[in-house]
Amino acid sequence: MNSSLITLELCVIAIGIVLMLADFWMPPERKKFLAYAAIAALGGLLLVSLGGDGICSQFGTAFNGSFVEDPLALFFKRFFLVAAILVLFLSAEFSDRLAGVSEYYSLILFALAGMLFAASANDFAMLFVSIELITITFYVLVSFQRGRLVSLEAGVKYLILGALSSAFLVFGIALIWGTTGKFNFNDLAQVSGQFLDNKIFLLGLLFVLVGLGFKIAAFPFQIWAPDVYQGAPTPTTAFLAVGSKAAGFVLLLRVLFVAVPDVTKHWANLLIMISGITILYGNLCAIPQRNLKRLLGYSSIAHAGYLLLGVAALSASGNAALLYYLAGYLFTVVAAFTVIALVLRHLDNEDISALAGLNQRSPLLASTMTLAMMSLAGIPPLAGFFGKFLLLKSVIEAAQATGNHGYYCLAFTALAGVVISLYYYFRVVRAIYWSKDAPDLSPIPLSGAAKFSITICIAGMFWLGIFPDTVLNLANDAAKVLGI
Amino acid sequence: MSILTYILGWPLLAALLLVFVPRNYRVIIRAIAVLATLISAALAVKMFCQYAGAPVDADGYRFVQQIPWVESLGISYHVGVDGLNVGLILMGAIVAFAAALCSWEIQTREKEFYILLLVMTGGILGAFASLDLFFFYAFHEFALIPTFIMIGVWGRGERKNYATFQITLYLSLGALIALIGLIALYLKSGANTFDIPKLTEYIASHPLAANAQNFIFPLLLFGFGILVSLWPFHSWAPLGYGVAPAPTAMLHAGVLKKFGLYGLIRIALPLMPQAAQSWMHILAWLCLGNILYVGWVAMKQKDLNLLIGNSSVAHMGFIFLGIASLNIIGVTGAVLIMIAHGFLAALTFALSGYIYQKTGTLQISELGGLCRPLRFIGTALLMAAMAGCGLPGFANFVGEVTVFFGSWKVFPLVTTLAVWGALIIGAVYMTRAIRNILHGPVPEKFSNLADASNVWRKLPYALLLASLLLFGFLPKLLTEKINPDAKKIVSLANSTVEEQNVAAVSEIRNPQSAIPN
């Protein structure tokens, strides 16, 4: 037993509880500072996790092997901490629109704790508990704006579909446990080869994939994403798009490559199809959208498809590419949602036309949004370009290594997706700079904190695009854990 | 630091600088853009002049600089020139300077326009200077995106949106297909490097398997082909150039488009010789589509810009023919036309941009007698048209004749047909346009048009014309540089798997020792 491994998780939960208690004594007008306190605390934790030799460089397992700390877990923990910090900045800007905002902050921290556990989950019980911790917190976070009908509607949709997917997940886990008698991923890996012909075992595994597919919004479990993205408060949407999706991916990687590598080998075509259809679905449906958050909802489906390219490649380089792409996606998406939250502060609808004249209202926000869209579209020298390049490379590598022509089809599908996506990303850029009539040209006031978080996002996009070496090496190390 | 880094760095630096200049300082914005492109053009001229005396590295490149970037993948920032790209970089830098000078026609949102123009310039020069597949592609993409935005925002006419949509779709698709080809090439080679010289050397001794070549070569041929408007993937070009603002059309038709051709010569031919040999027949016939069919379409045009756009597509056919001939004369001629056409396309689009600016129309039937009010512009247009039909004395003539000499040995029938395209079709549409636009009675409303008045206005046209004439009279300046490197490419491209190319490897090592063709 090595329970010091979960120090990070305990600290996050403690911060969450302290925030909740502090709410009693904090006068309402100063509640924004609770967010900054939480950011400072998480920043401290991030520094600790980045530090070479501290509590986080200790690798090992705890709780009878159900919790594992390894480079992969560490990569994702850093990722989640950065995501939570940026989302907290965003929530602080958003605080005037949320009643009971300090609960909101602490819920973000609890969701973060769930994500941290997910990064380290090494058996199905831990997988389920961490997913539930994330999902249930998000039910509340999505419907937090009680006064807005769309927020409630989004909450109900997320609740129903989330509960359904949890049911699938539990059922799948039960079937797997029933056939193999194993909960732990490493134990399962040793016996999974014997169950290749066991229909019940495979069905159970498929059900688990359904549950995870819901988290990452992959086809055909993507229906909830646009509605929920649109209705939820913007910080929640950002956290959903980044944190929740990444948690789904780390669990997916662990299940596919640690728990049942023997089965996964035979599932290349299934993964290719899911990835290809997700890319096409997300990109095609995004074309007619006018609502910004909904547009990003569809774009996040498309990006789930791109990320699945790395999974479908079934190779270490594919997984490393996925991790790299996620890192770039984090800064890009948070930047986009921060701009949306700041620009549409006083508007009820999030129509693209609300961005008109943004370059005169706030050049900083306009260039941030432009860079975010360009990075999502994959244009050099931003993070998205190098990420897409790595993903495509891993897919073509898989095609050449296995001789499976499906991979070439997948590469061309991804390419078609990229071309389609140029259209709607550029429409956003166009709306910023070249709208005919801009009704409101008043400057947008920016707080220092908002500027700070935006600067981090921009720096992140450029850093990952221009100096990819550091993160790529981390991603390569992390992908090695998956042992393929 | 290599001079190349400065050549491509100045425009990018200036673009960054412009971001911080307030938008109402119009004169300063324009001055910065013109100055940056001028410096870059001056450096390019300097490099061109010093080329012969510059030290040559082991792979035969000069002015080389290499900085490792992602070592695990074998990507490095590696720039350098040999005979194939030295002229292209010179041409690109001069055209960029001319385009910046011609940008006075842009009256709205100048700041954004100049930023995009400079980014595009930096990307183009970077793509031609790169000796690393990754940067080669990334720089091109970096230059391509501003093109779309410039056409979409500053384009003219009612079909602007449709044209932007079409050009974006076509060119992104072409670029991405080529990207898949390049990645597949990198992976298949097994050399674990994106470095072009290293890759060339490695593949010369470890040729790719025939089926890999047959898979990758078409990807590059058609991916690059779409970018160069190879028939039948050309339909984006005339329309796109028709609506593009003049400086964008100058840079794209003149310079950026040559990226695909350069990629074919630099990468596809030497690295996949077997597939190249089997595809060249098809390419030769496809290029007739450019020369004859698109030439015929050009004859039917009623809009000057569409005519120039189509004629520019038709000229690509000659370059493809030169490449398809796969011999030294043909490839040298192809590179010559690439450079000559760059100046020519930039010149014609600049002139049509001027006419459109002054008259508000490019419908040939509405224009007439413009030589009288516009003495300078009219004369320049006449000379450009003559260069376009291949009149001796202009650089185009040299290139086209060289290509025909080269291709005659290999494809006599195709060459015979192509010569018709060059001599007759080109002459028909060019002279007809000249007659209708420059001669005849002047319409009442155009009798007081202002000609390019001062030196700055005349400079871009004069500069481009002078370049055309210089290389027309002294093609040796280019051919003596192109020839040794064309020889290398051709000897690699004509190698077969059976005779494991020891000769080609030693050829790379000692560029001086010639192989008889």
Description of the structure:
The complex is a heterodimer of chains A (484) and B (517). With 484 residues, chain A is an all-alpha fold. Chain A has a domain at 262-484. In chain A, 75% of the residues lie in helices and 1% in strands. Chain A has 20 helices and 2 strands. Chain A has helices at residues 7-25, 32-50, 71-94, 101-120, 124-142, 149-180, 185-191, 199-216, 224-231, 234-259, 261-264, 268-286, 292-312, 316-343, 358-361, 363-377, 383-402, 405-434, 448-466, 469-480; strands at 60-62, 67-69. In chain A, strand 1 (60-62) and strand 2 (67-69) form a beta hairpin. The longest helix of chain A has 32 residues, at 149-180. Chain A is globular. The model of chain A has no long low-confidence stretch (mean pLDDT 88). Chain B has 517 residues and is mainly α. Chain B has one domain (3-509). Helices cover 73% and strands 3% of the residues of chain B. Chain B has helices spanning 3-19, 26-50, 83-102, 110-129, 133-154, 160-189, 196-205, 210-227, 236-243, 246-256, 258-271, 273-299, 304-325, 328-359, 375-388, 395-408, 412-438, 455-473, 476-493, 502-509, and strands at 62-70, 75-81. In chain B, strands 1-2 form a two-stranded antiparallel ribbon. The longest helix of chain B is centred in the middle third of the chain and has 32 residues, at 328-359. Chain A binds chain B through residues 367, 374, 379-381, 385, 389, 392-393, 396-397, 400, 411-412, 415-416, 418-419, 422-423, 426, 429-430, 433-434, 468-469, 472-473, 476, and chain B through 19, 69-72, 109, 112, 134, 138-139, 141-142, 145, 148-149, 152-153, 165, 168-169, 172-173, 176-177, 179-180, 183-184, 186-188.
